[in-house]
Amino acid sequence: MIMSINWYSAGATAFVLFLAFALLGAMFLIVKLSTDDSDKFKDLKEMVETIFGTPAHLRSGNANAQEDASKDSAAQSAAALEAFSEPCPACGETVTEQHRDCPSCGLRLL
Ligand SMILES: [Zn+2]
């Protein structure tokens, strides 16, 4: 009876260890495949990115998405450089596009 309990315990420990190593192996494999730039694992990569919440247009290796992103950031920079004059959200001091930080309270604006 004691022997059977020990065997059960050992088996459970071995099973847990096996699961842990299997999980590690699976994660390693997924990371390896998701960093592979070939189209072979495109579907898997998209699935993994869906699981881990990385939007497809943000990942590296997609030239079109990167172009779009740089266009977007360029447009945002241009918009940020347009003249504006509005009260600081923290202290109410009037700030303009000339101020990277609020001259009154130092709050970062851009
Ligand atoms: Zn301020």
TrEMBL record:
Keywords: Membrane, Transmembrane, Transmembrane helix. Residues 59-78 are annotated as: Disordered. The chain crosses the membrane at residues 6-31. This is Zinc-ribbon domain-containing protein.
